[in-house]
Amino acid sequence: MQPLLYCLPYFAWLAQAGALTPAELLAQTPRCTHRCIADALAGLNGDLSNVASYVCENTTLQSELSTCTQTSCLYADQVNAAKLETELCAAFPKASRSHDVNRAIIVGCALVFPTIALRLYTRVTCTGRLWADDYATILAAVLLASLAIIDLCSAHLGLGMHYWTIPTGHGILILKLFYAESIIYTLLLITSKISILLLYARLFPVQTFLWVIKGLGAFLGCHGVLYVLLIAMQCLPVYTIWDRYVTDRKCIDVTAVAYSSGALSILEDVAILLLPIPQVWQLKIDRRRQLGLIAIFSIGSFACFTSMIRMKFVVQYNATFDATWNNVDIIVWSAIEQFTAMFCGSLPALRLLFIRAHRRASAEIRQRYDNMPSRALPSKNSIPTQSPSRGIWNNQAADTQANSACTGNQIGQGEDGIRVTTVVQVSQEPGTWLDDSTQNHDEDVEVTNRTRIVTRR
């Protein structure tokens, strides 16, 4: 009976604010919350005047009251208790981190989706087709867009607010969205990694390396299928995952699933990061170019770092009683992880587009320079420079040079890769047919083999 004495100021204040008497409010308050309310109001000392500010302006007190209610009451009683607290604190501002979710999603979408579009445009214009890794990227982009929409909807419904301040009718909707997001996140995680493996298989078609790619791809497939099933069937019946009114349910340890999946994901990231290094090291090119290729493949290490940061928050908030507030860090870093993976995976493919733009700009600059009215006349024995406006070096040749990175006439018909080409260098020597002072037409031609690197992305 003693806990009820501490609750009387609370019920009296509610009775003054509303139309119900303290006895009626006491009857509506779940019995399991009486001890929690008594402990929370123990420091009030019977002062009725500031009960609202005492409870509603003290986040720590509200957190303790919510934790006690969640551990002492069934979900239906928790909802009834939340209604009373909502009425008590209706006039007070409510803290929210929803803007953190919105900002991360909007910035990520603004960076990643245009980059993916440019990647596909570059691939089509430069090679005339899309490859298997491009189609995997398209599928991953669809999943990423779905993930972004779910996060924005969740933030609108109350994700980012404290658990005890969420509108009562939004709780089940947020749980449904979080359930769908968990499945989509797992599918997206596997799809983005498989797209990288498909790229490796196209770049390094060595039989032994292809077997390694197939083995890791099979492991990723098993990882995806297993954890999608574990997440989808974490509770039976399935609807009890979001319908907490049902008490007769059987659930697995979701925390263990999150830990194991996160650890496997980090190990997979490290394996994918290290996979192409031996292949690059075996290429017969100079060390500087080898290090440059390794640097290109290492761009994906940023996604690995974001996975580790996300895992830190998963461990930190594994047993939280304020999930809608604390899980913001997990949601945000999950989104950043996937945005980073997609962005870093598509960025190297834009290299050909940058080269094309650079060559066109260089050709225009040379053309403007050559069209200047005052120029030094070439000497008699000088070889004509590559002027885009005179002689055999006409505008068409300049355009060909500018577009050589993205034309079907380039090496391999647009197929990126590492090719060995033959370069014929013609040098002018006195007494040869290039010299006007002699009638000797002997040719002095030097033929050299060079390695040309065109990186496929």
Automatic annotation (TrEMBL):
Keyword Phosphoprotein applies: no
Region (Disordered): 373-393
Name of this chain's protein: Extracellular membrane protein CFEM domain-containing protein
Domain CFEM: residue ranges: 26-90
Topology in membrane: Lipid-anchor; GPI-anchor; Multi-pass membrane protein
Record's keyword terms, sorted: Disulfide bond, Glycoprotein, GPI-anchor, Lipoprotein, Membrane, Secreted, Signal, Transmembrane, Transmembrane helix
UniProt domain Rhodopsin: residue ranges: 118-354
Stated family: Belongs to the RBT5 family. Belongs to the SAT4 family.
GO cellular component, one term: extracellular region
Localization (cell): Membrane; Secreted
Keyword Ribosomal protein carried by entry: no
Main location: membrane
Polar residues: bias regions: 379-393
Secretion signal span: 1-19
Membrane-crossing segments per the record: 104-122, 134-163, 183-204, 216-242, 290-310, 330-354
